[in-house]
Design brief:
The complex is a heterodimer of chains A (262) and B (257). Chain A contains twelve helices and no strands. Chain B has 257 residues and is an alpha/beta fold. Chain B is built from nine helices and ten strands. Chain B has a six-stranded mixed beta sheet with strand order 6-7-8-3-9-10, sandwiched between helices. In chain B, strands 2-1-4-5 form a four-stranded antiparallel beta sheet. The chains are: A mainly alpha (262), B alpha/beta (257). Chains A and B meet through helix 1, helix 5 and helix 11 of A and helix 1, helix 2 and helix 3 of B.
């Protein structure tokens, strides 16, 4: 691993935001409108129920969901950007390894989410007087678990894009939203029918969001959900890395790296 | 005998039943300007992609700078570079930003100074703050070449370096390449459809047709072997022929070190 090369790729993607202010919409406007929607909805539901912490639960869930979706897109969309700018061959005729490239995209995803999360925290506090940091250190393992899962999904999507090129662009944008209805993000796992719960148990998302609700309800971090989330993440990450390695081999074998440039 | 900087032996690439490169062997010496020619579909891009480790060979061996490709891909790629008008740097970013990024990817020491020196050499110093998308074709070609010189490559792979350039811009790029190649003793390995350019630049060429080498030697010797007045005549007759002409190699040409 060469940190200079890794940082080169991180800088390349950070530079896009500096050169094109419209790209900031993704980091500011999108989260802003999502926060408005769920903040007002939470306020309304809070008035109807006796649960005073509904707004905080919904905004906390939104914040963590944003962590997941931005990190995942940080990897997948950044890779697509190399295709859009026909820069992929330039990158892969340098001595950079696939692992270094992937690590760079992972770091970029984290930087992106640090910016968005800070912005959303400040906005939630300003608009709804909800301080999401009152959850305390419990937020850290949940965010880490989400970042790990986002890395796995982002890596998997890069493998898909390698195979199908820009035709897979919609997957890169929408994969997180495909998962959202099944992640128990804004409602408890018990809402799903039992057969679906049995399947969703094998995805880290419901464990993480169940744990978040438990923290907001004052019950602390449930260790079994955390253990499941991190255990599953290890499996998903190993699977994603293996898949990407295989897809790169296939790309070199079948010439996808050249065709992607066309 | 001078050792080969590139040695390719029995290189073959098949995509399913389609054979793109069919058992070619050749060597390139240090400091040589070597042209890889042939009509569309001859296997040039496939060959150059295998030399750069972007494509895995079905059979055969590639040795570059005494390292095996793709086994020592990273060692090789740190000492070579590549430029093509069909490959861009991120067009939304300023030229200087792009060059800094590539300087880091090649871990170039004192990158800032290096970029500015090369920018003077390539006559693009005034373009460094411009966005890449605002450059003309000629300016883009020179900036892409600058990128390709960042790591002082021992071998520079060029895929149709003057394609899409007007005659004046093409001539500027050719002259620049020739001057830098002589100054640095660098090896140029390039493909082109511009036969006049090939005659002017190349020390040696190979002609590919349907994945096979059908001619190898200096541009003059190839023209003589096929009784053609110019390489362009040879190219046109080859592109229009339905059969692959028998391969001819001058007896003095080495095939492998």
């Amino acid at each position: 691993m060469n940190p200079t090369r890794i940082w080169a790729i991180v800088l390349r993607h950070l530079a896009v935001y500096r050169s094109n202010l419209a790209r900031l919409n993704e980091l500011i406007l999108w989260p802003f409108f999502e926060l408005l929607l769920w903040g007002f909805f939470g306020t309304y539901v809070g008035r109807l129920s006796s649960l005073g912490y509904v707004v905080a639960v919904l905004l906390g869930a939104l914040l963590l969901w944003t962590v997941f979706s931005r990190v995942q897109q940080g990897i997948a969309i950044s890779f697509l950007m190399e295709l859009w700018s026909r820069n992929l061959m330039n990158i892969f005729v340098t001595p950079i390894s696939v692992a270094e490239y992937l690590v760079a995209l992972m770091i970029f995803g984290i930087l992106k989410v640090l910016f968005v999360a800070t912005f959303m925290w400040a906005l939630a506090w300003a608009l709804y007087h909800v301080n999401l940091l009152t959850v305390g250190p419990a937020l850290v393992p949940l965010a880490v678990a989400l970042i790990l899962f986002a890395w796995a999904i982002g890596t998997f999507i890069v493998g898909i894009v390698l195979r199908f090129g820009q035709g897979a662009e919609s997957i890169a944008w929408m994969f997180a939203f495909f998962l959202q209805p099944f992640g128990a993000v804004f409602f408890p796992l018990s809402v799903y029918p039992q057969w679906l719960q049995n399947i969703l148990w094998w995805i880290p998302l419901p464990h993480i969001f169940e744990a978040l609700r438990s923290v907001f309800a004052g019950n602390g971090l449930p260790p079994h959900h955390l253990a499941w989330a991190f255990g599953l993440n290890v499996i998903y990450l190993l699977g994603a890395f293996t898949f990407l390695g295989y897809m790169f081999e296939q790309a070199r074998e079948k010439g996808f790296l050249l065709k992607l440039q066309e | 005998m001078e050792s080969a900087i590139i040695a390719v032996k029995d290189l073959r690439k098949a995509f399913g039943k389609t054979v793109a490169v069919d058992g070619i062997s050749f060597t390139v010496k240090r400091g040589e300007i070597f042209g890889l020619l042939g009509p569309n579909g001859a296997g040039k891009t496939t060959t150059i992609a295998m030399l750069l480790g972007l494509l895995t060979a079905t059979d055969g061996t590639i040795m570059i700078l005494d390292h095996s490709m793709p086994r020592h891909r990273r060692q090789i790629l740190s000492r070579v570079n590549f430029s093509s008008p069909y490959v861009n740097m991120p067009y939304g970013l300023p030229v200087m930003t792009n060059l800094r990024i590539f300087a880091r990817l090649y871990t170039v020491p004192r990158a800032e100074q290096k970029i500015r020196e090369l920018a003077e050499t390539f006559g693009v110093a005034h373009l460094l703050s411009r966005r890449t998308m605002t450059l003309s074709s000629g300016e883009t070609a020179r900036v892409n070449l600058l990128k390709a010189f960042l790591n002082d490559p021992e071998i520079l792979f060029l895929d149709e370096p003057t394609a899409a350039l007007d005659p004046e811009a093409a001539d500027t790029v050719r002259s620049l390449l020739l001057r830098l190649q002589k100054e640095r003793g660098m090896t140029l390995f390039y493909t082109s459809h511009n036969m006049q350019e090939v005659e002017r630049l190349s020390d040696r060429i190979i002609f590919l047709h349907r994945g096979k080498i059908i001619a190898e030697g200096t541009p003059d010797s190839v023209m003589r072997q096929f009784n053609q007045g110019t390489l362009e005549d040879f190219f046109i007759s080859l592109a229009r022929s339905k059969t692959t002409p028998p391969a001819t190699h001058p007896p003095h040409e080495e095939t492998m070190p």
